[in-house]
Amino acid sequence: MVYNSTRVITLEEHYWDAEMSSHFPLGERVSHVKNLLLEVGEVRLKAMDEAGIDVQVLSHGAPSSQKLDPAIAVDLTKRTNDRLATFCSRHSKRFFGFAAIPTTEPDAAARELERCVKDLGFKGAMVHGLTHGHFLDEKQFWPIFEMAEKLDVPIYLHPSVPDAEVSKRYYDDYGQEFPTVIRPAWGFTVETATVAIRLILSRVFEKHKNLKIILGHLGEALPYLMWRINQSLARPGQKSLNFQEVFCRHFYVTTSGNFSTPALLCAIQELGIDNIMFSVDYPYVTNSEGVDWVKSLQINPQDKVKLLSGNAAQLLRL
């Protein structure tokens, strides 16, 4: 269960709650790994053991509570989180949770985050894409960030299917032949990177100076683009903003579903190893894929320990 006596923690590992997922839009109920998403138990534990993963931080898969009808969102999300907490309590050394939060009702979402952290022992929250077309940087959602800062827990920004108008204009020409271009191949990256950039432009981090945000997939390409974004936003005629400084102070990235050594080295150079955490993106990616890759990395042994578990243990207090 260990790699070179080092605990292995992964924190973008998904499941579906049967009740919540029954309310997903029809097109988002279909997945090639649907059975694995709906299973939280022996199959998942066996897959972890075979790969040498000690701990998963579980999060509800997209679109989670972000597209629920506001009339049902709050109560349904609470029931979903309660069921996850019950499962985690049965395997308290193997599983922890990120809360689903009903962003359709931002004040209620902040209260649910507080309940999940204080009463259920969750380690933060995961938010999937836009909330009925609204970006998370809008002021109506800032009570969520205020609560996350108060509790000292991160918000994980995870992709969801891009806005319908974006999909129509950008991807419909090729979406039928190459459906993943809308999702993990490209659409997810653009959508989530845009959410992250807008958060920085909104100056929410000036108000909430200790707010912590996590991005998966090695930062949704933002580490690779860091110099250009930072230099462009610093050109004359714009408000003063050091994008790179804000990003490196407030953002963490995981390796979920992106086992590229050059991309990892770029992220280390831009962010530093302390802001990078190992994750798999199970069950969309197999545990063994991620573990085999990280074993092959030729990086400083102390940095590998940080990557495998040290950074996650510190950020999430595991």
Describe the overall structure.
The protein has 318 residues and is α/β, with parallel strands linked by helices. It has one domain (9-316): TIM Barrel. Helix content is 47%, strand content 11%. The chain is built from 15 helices and 9 strands. Helix 4 runs parallel beside helix 5 (106-118). It starts with 8 loop residues before the first strand and ends with a helix.
- CATH hierarchy, class: Alpha Beta
By CATH, the architecture is named Alpha-Beta Barrel
CATH topology: TIM Barrel
Ends distance: 17 Å
The description of the largest β-sheet is: 6 strands, parallel
Tell how many strands the DSSP assignment holds: 9
The residue ranges in which pLDDT falls below 50 over 5 or more consecutive positions are none
Short description:
Helix content is 47%, strand content 11%.
Characteristics:
single chain, alpha/beta, 3-stranded parallel β-sheet, 6-stranded parallel β-sheet, TIM Barrel, about 325 residues
Mind sketching the topology for me?
Blueprint: E1 9-15, H1 18-21, H2 34-37, H3 42-51, E2 55-60, H4 70-90, E3 95-97, E4 99-100, H5 106-118, E5 125-128, H6 142-151, E6 155-158, H7 164-170, H8 172-175, H9 187-202, H10 204-207, E7 213-215, H11 222-233, H12 243-250, E8 251-254, H13 261-271, E9 276-277, H14 287-296, H15 301-316
